[in-house]
Hints:
Layout: E1 2-15, H1 25-36, E2 40-53, E3 63-79, E4 88-89, E5 98-99, E6 106-124, E7 133-136, E8 140-142, E9 149-153, E10 157-164, E11 170-174, E12 183-184, E13 190-192, H2 195-199, E14 215-224, H3 227-233, E15 240-241, H4 244-254, E16 263-273
Parallel strand pairs: 8-16
Antiparallel strand pairs: 1-2, 2-3, 3-6, 4-5, 7-9, 9-13, 10-11, 10-12, 10-14, 11-15, 14-16
Helix pairs in contact: 1-4
Amino acid sequence: MKRQPSSFKTRRQVDLHSMTAIAAGLPGLIGIEARYGRDVGADIGVENTEVLEANVSPRCGSIVVDKVFVGSGRVQLVVRSEAGGSVNAQTGPLPGSVTHAGGGRVVDSTEWREPQAWGFGTRRMGDTPPLDLTVRLPGSAPDGSEVTAAIETSRKAWLVVFYQEDAGKASVLWPSAEEPEPVSEPGRPAALPSARERAAGIRIQAQLRDKAKEAHELLVVHAFTDKADYDRHKPAAGVDAANGPAYVSELTRKISDIPMARWSRAITAYTIVPAGK
């Protein structure tokens, strides 16, 4: 390990799906995204002090972390719809404060004054490319309408899919009785629901518990390029979990020993709106 002094300041604004951790951890991040959907943005301000660089070899895996950035700063998550559609950062010394047009509300804040690891860099080892995963899903759906999704992967991959309500409950969509081994391949995206499921009369319908109030939900997809990994970690068909964020976090923890090139995860937010709006 080599320590390299590297002093710089950076401030950026990103979508919530670009974040890997917040004060409440992965379950908190998922819970916030389920509650507020795509209306949450992150304002990040960091003063970097050094970079740690590791000597790595192909024996470490196909994609490895070879740099760790160390510094102090702040991350705040803000509801953009309450901020006039934007997140605006004050200029001045870091960590600084955040103001929002229209009085945006901070829903999570992480601040650290002592230098800590805040970012990392990766390197691809060998010839195995990373698994790219894309979920195509409308950003909103009227109450009572049919919802469909297309799942695309850069290599053949087996899929685990479930959705999470804004109240936290999660339900497994794939695998299912009709699709025990759902697969996506390059040029052949997986359709949800599948042709077999549609032939069996299965549809995915947007439903509001409160017909006058919109709700935010998440579609969570895990993709595995090795079927043995899929078989080892897939949930039982039709399983429900009362605590969806904890369920996602636990699944991620279980698959953390799999090389990064063999799996990928996508979390996509969508909003169910009252019919006629």
